[in-house]
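BUG-417 | component: ligand-complex export | severity: low

The export step for heme C jobs runs without errors, but we want the raw record kept on the ticket for reference. Input record follows.
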Amino acid sequence: MLLAISILSITAAAEVSADAGKKLFKANCASCHKLDKKLIGPALGDVTQRRTEEWLLKWIRNNAEFRASGDADANALFAEYKGSIMQAFPALTDDDIKSILAYTVEGDKKAAPAAAPAPGADAAAQAPAEGGNSPWLIYILGAFLLVNLVLLFRVRNTLKQINGENPTNLLEDVDFITRVLIANKRFMTFLTVVLALGFLYAIYSFLMGIGIEKDYQPVQPIAFSHKIHAGENGVDCNYCHSSARHSKHSGIPAANVCMNCHMYIDGSEVVDASGNLKYGGERSPEIQKIYAAIGWDPEERVYMEGYEQKPIQWIRIHNLPDLAYFNHAQHVNAGKVECQTCHGPVQEMEVAYQYSELTMGWCINCHRETEIKGENGYYAGAIDGSASISDRLVDRFHEEKITVANIGGLECGKCHY
Ligand code: HEC
Ligand code: HEC
Ligand code: HEC
Ligand code: HEC
Ligand code: HEC
Ligand code: HEC
């Protein structure tokens, strides 16, 4: 029981750890801060020496509010950075922020291998530092049960020997132990909890396994909106996804494509729904992330020299398994299928998501139903002026409608290597 209790208390304990801090830093701060040098914002490697924890908690949580409260240091810093904006992070808890600060102190150096536990520290309490779902927990529980069973056997056998009975009937023993255990309320509660946790974990893994799926809509590193670009500003899909026309992949544009416009549009004129300047005339923090990725200095209006560019880590939304072959050019060019037929109303999406199922059935259904267009280049007819391929196919199949299926679109080998 003791063990079970200590396990429970471990899971409940909130953690401040440099490891967790590193992840949070990479996800939220790395686009503007480095530990060892100035980026958009100051280097943070020594920030805990320059500022108190209380100051840092307030600044990182919501620096605009903090500045408005009249803190002199905060306002001086803001002035020093000529009004570059750091957004607020209302979702970060105090422990999250302390973890990030722990990371700024520890940095990227590998933690010393298996630091010796602090004297007097409970060994079990050290274990979870290894991380989340370690199988050790299961081994420990298993061992715990086994030890209990062996003990029960011993007790039972000893009792039998005292009574002068024959001590070794395994089946009888198992039966006895089962009854003892079932009668034991605490054991049954424990077992129920373990089973319930196992069940929840199984459901969780199952859902995570499905993961990339219809409606999948990850949070992207930059709040890029197709609605603003392809919708309101009417930028053609091909401006950014040019390879969709002539290659298998459609690809995501590199940051220099963004810079064609964002060298001039820094977001300071973005207005919100009520017609006010969204960032009070300051640069948009989202657009500054593009600058941070590519090394553009918006003050001096130059690309910083010797800057190590960091590609924007867009999270992939659509992802067919490797066993299936899909080619964009074949569909967009030859097949004349609109992007929206497969990807939905992208130009209205504030945040992109997966619109179609992308299952085999989805591919096949469309191949069964979609007529191949006789008038398009590929099927328009041979150079010698003879009938178009579609027309010839109509003759061959004695059907009015020639679908992708008729030209082999249902053959396994077309989609599977
Ligand atoms: C969009 C860019 C941006 C992001 C993202 C960002 N910061 Fe900042 N940060 C700045 C700028 C710029 C400053 C300088 C002050 C100013 O102009 O507001 C700053 C200042 C700071 C300071 C004060 C440093 C000092 O020298 O006193 C701390 C601490 C800080 N940021 C921590 C963080 C943490 C932690 C995160 C992530 C949770 C983060 N920042 C995310 C841009 C950013
Ligand atoms: C200004 C550049 C730009 C334009 C114009 C644009 N996109 Fe995108 N598109 C992006 C960027 C950047 C991403 C990655 C970020 C995201 O998913 O929102 C993306 C992602 C996508 C994705 C998801 C890719 C994945 O991860 O699986 C699809 C689908 C897509 N765009 C389709 C379109 C279509 C269709 C149009 C035209 C209606 C269009 N895009 C116009 C820049 C653009
Ligand atoms: C053809 C020009 C063009 C290209 C290319 C372009 N953008 Fe934009 N972007 C705009 C315009 C116009 C706005 C709206 C600005 C406004 O309302 O003041 C905008 C707004 C934005 C905003 C919203 C700013 C905010 O905080 O509200 C983000 C983020 C953004 N763009 C990111 C990107 C990224 C990332 C790329 C490259 C993948 C990109 N843009 C490529 C023209 C472009
Ligand atoms: C016949 C359906 C279909 C059409 C039409 C189509 N796509 Fe796709 N698109 C897909 C599928 C399926 C994937 C996933 C491919 C993979 O994982 O290999 C995908 C993936 C993407 C991606 C993610 C990057 C990549 O290349 O895998 C982008 C971006 C994209 N499409 C944009 C477009 C644009 C822009 C158009 C129009 C010019 C378009 N798509 C037309 C089905 C389609
Ligand atoms: C919206 C309808 C549509 C969907 C959905 C669709 N396709 Fe297609 N597909 C077409 C059309 C139209 C063609 C014919 C192109 C042409 O004219 O060459 C085609 C052709 C093909 C071909 C070439 C067939 C041949 O005989 O040369 C392959 C391979 C293919 N598709 C794979 C896929 C895969 C894999 C998927 C699912 C991930 C898929 N398609 C989803 C419409 C679709
Ligand atoms: C038009 C394209 C297309 C054709 C034709 C096609 N498949 Fe598929 N198949 C796919 C796609 C796409 C997937 C991946 C679907 C997913 O991830 O849900 C797939 C998945 C599969 C899988 C794996 C299923 C799984 O659960 O992972 C098998 C097995 C398979 N196909 C067999 C076949 C056989 C056999 C044929 C011929 C009778 C065939 N396919 C014809 C597109 C096709």
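Assignee comment: Attached the raw record above. DSSP finds 20 helices and two strands in the chain.
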